[in-house]
Amino acid sequence: MPRSTNQAHLLTKARARQIWLQAQRLDAVAPFGDGPQATAAAVEHLGYVQIDTINVIERCHHHILWTRIPTYQCEHLRQAQSIDKTVFEYWTHALSYIPAKDFRFFVAAMKRHKEEGHKWFASVSATDLRKVMKLIRNDGALTIRDIEDDVLVEKEHLWASRKPSKRALQLAFYTGALTISERNGMLKTYELMERHFGWDKPPKPASAKDTANYLLDRALRAQGIVSLDSICHLNASSKPAIREVIRARVRRKQLLPIALEGAGKLEHWAQPEVVECAGEEAAEMVHILSPFDPLIIQRKRLELFFDYAHRFEAYLPKEKRKFGYFALPVLVGDRIVAAIDLKTDRKAKKLLMQKWSWIGKQPRRLLKGRIEDELHRFERFQLGD
Questions:
Q1: Nearest to 185 by CA among 268, 322, 75, 27
Q2: 49 in a structural domain
């Protein structure tokens, strides 16, 4: 797909950051409103909210939502998943909460896992799969703790379960036979997909073309300016189909090629109305971001737009860490100005400062007080006050 600066719209990094922050809804107070309905609205706009097990502070799915919903409470996500059923869990680039209205775009992957198996759960026997499905069908939703007769086996991977029934539950989840109907911490309750949603049968799968359009639209909504890599994060197999959709939209003038400052030959696109809209000066908001926040998770894109290379160091030896075990980037306005390594001491009801690393050359004395104010608010969220 050739591009020259004569064809492409030139865009500075400053303007690109502004567009991306607006798309991420990080430039406004309470952009999704308040209460449980704000949670469903945030997941719908972002397209997905990543789930992670690390618990040194509040888990990232709650953190990501709190960043955009000042009054967010963890039970709001439970209501969306288990009561309102407006979100469900499945795999995007990682295990994530996804809008339930987007279910049909994931049916093809579920069918593929049913027909071909799943590489992570190749050892699941047909007997174990039938066992867990019969238990749930006859006795209702269950957790792995409800299965008491498992015989432990050797792990195949560090993160794998040693219980055959848990592997069977996970395989049934990826095939779409089961869904996670509730979470308590990281304890998952599994239920028949149709029974959870009240379906006679699941929605029909979206076509490959519709799915490619969905992935592009999701990225445009949440990123503002997109590249092939940002649309297909950890999903390289979808790139040829996405490229064709982009070509078609460029021809129809629905997408504008972008020559982004510092991007070299890396192609970007945006909707013309997004680029042409005059960038208004937004309030310099302070955000303490999860390392799994949609703004942070794509490291190369983050560095291109913000000139900041985030390091996730939880899996590094202590002596090799620069920012700390679970460093959180601090965004002030359109700049990442610090990375703060925090840990919650739940027994003592304190948020512990492990390390504070300044980024860039901003006037730190003026920034420190504003960041500390946000840290106090963050501490209240961590401790449930």
A1: 75
A2: no
Query: For residue 151, what are the contacts with CB-CB under 8 A and spacing of at least 6?
Result: 164
The residue among 110, 105, 101 whose CA lies nearest residue 207 is 105
Give me the pLDDT at residue 148, please.
72
Residue-level pLDDT at 283: 73
208 domain-assigned: no
Q: What is the pLDDT of residue 132?
A: 95
Q: Which of 173, 234, 307 is nearest to 50 (CA)?
A: 234
Task: Give the Cα separation of 215 and 234 in Å (integer).
Answer: 13
In contact, 191 and 136? CB cutoff 8 Å: yes
pLDDT over 60 (residue 1): no
Side by side, the strands of the sheet bearing 327-332 are 286-288, 327-332, 335-345, 350-358
DSSP state letters, 338-369: EEEEEEEETTTTEEEEEEEEE-SS--HHHHHH
d(CA 106, CA 102): 8
User: φ, ψ for residue 183 (rounded to 5)?
Assistant: -130, 135
Pair type for strands 335-345 and 178-184:
unpaired
| Closest of 132, 127, 115 to residue 170, by C-alpha | 132
Q: What is the mean pLDDT of the chain?
A: 93
Instruction: Give the integer Cα–Cα distance in Å for 189 and 156.
Output: 24
Q: Token pair of 358, please?
A: 């300044």
Q: What are the tens digits of pLDDT across the range 331-357?
A: 999 999 999 999 999 999 999 999 999
229 located within any domain: no
Report yes or no on 356 lying in a domain.
Answer: yes
- Could you list the residue range(s) of the whole structural domain that residue 319 is in? 286-383
Tally of structural domains, the chain: 1
Instruction: Look at the block and give the residue holding tokens 């950890």.
Output: 234
Tell me if 67 sits within 8 A of 10, measured CB to CB.
no
Alpha carbons 167 and 234: distance in angstroms, whole number:
23
H-run or E-run covering 280? none
The continuous run of DSSP H or E covering 178 comes out as strand 178-184
Alpha-carbon distance 270 to 255, whole Å? 6
Range list of H helices, 4-85: 13-23, 36-46, 60-68, 74-78
CB 269 within 8 A of CB 226: yes
Q: Which residue has the tokens 């609205």?
A: 41
